[in-house]
Amino acid sequence: FKQINLSCVMKQIEVKDTIQIPADCKVTIDRRLVTVTGPRGTLKKNFKHLQCELIPSKTSITIRVWFANRKAIACVRTICSHIENMFTGVRQGYKYKMKS
């Protein structure tokens, strides 16, 4: 008989993570198109290729995925990291120094 590893087959019903919105940033979400506006400008990022829900509130953003497999669970944290990097970009900016 073949043994099946159930940890690979089972799906989680709901996976969610929450990001806090900084006080000096404004976030708009329109069908998984996230726009972050801050003191240094505006950044836009499109997450339409991922099957997820982006739920904004006044002070936070919740990313939620239903019946997620392993790759979809990894995407939840990736979306959080992208949005947090957008906050950094519109608040502090980035400086890249060329290495010789």
| Biggest sheet: strand arrangement | 1-6-5
Distance between the termini: 59 Å
Q: How many β strands by DSSP?
A: 6
Helix and strand run: HEEEEEEH
Give the overall pLDDT as a whole number.
Answer: 90
Show unreliable segments: none
The rough form would be described as globular
Rg, please? 17 Å
Largest sheet: 3 strands, antiparallel
How many helices? 2
Strand fraction? 35-45%
Estimated helix fraction: 25-40%
Helix/strand-derived category reads alpha+beta
How would you portray this structure in words?
Helices cover 26% and strands 39% of the residues. The protein is an alpha+beta fold. The strands form two sheets. The protein has a three-stranded antiparallel beta sheet with strand order 1-6-5, covered by helices on one side. The protein has a three-stranded antiparallel beta sheet with strand order 2-3-4, covered by helices on one side. A hairpin with a 2-residue loop joins strand 3 and strand 4 (41-46). It is globular, with a radius of gyration of 17 Å. The N and C termini lie far apart (59 Å). The model has no long low-confidence stretch (mean pLDDT 90).
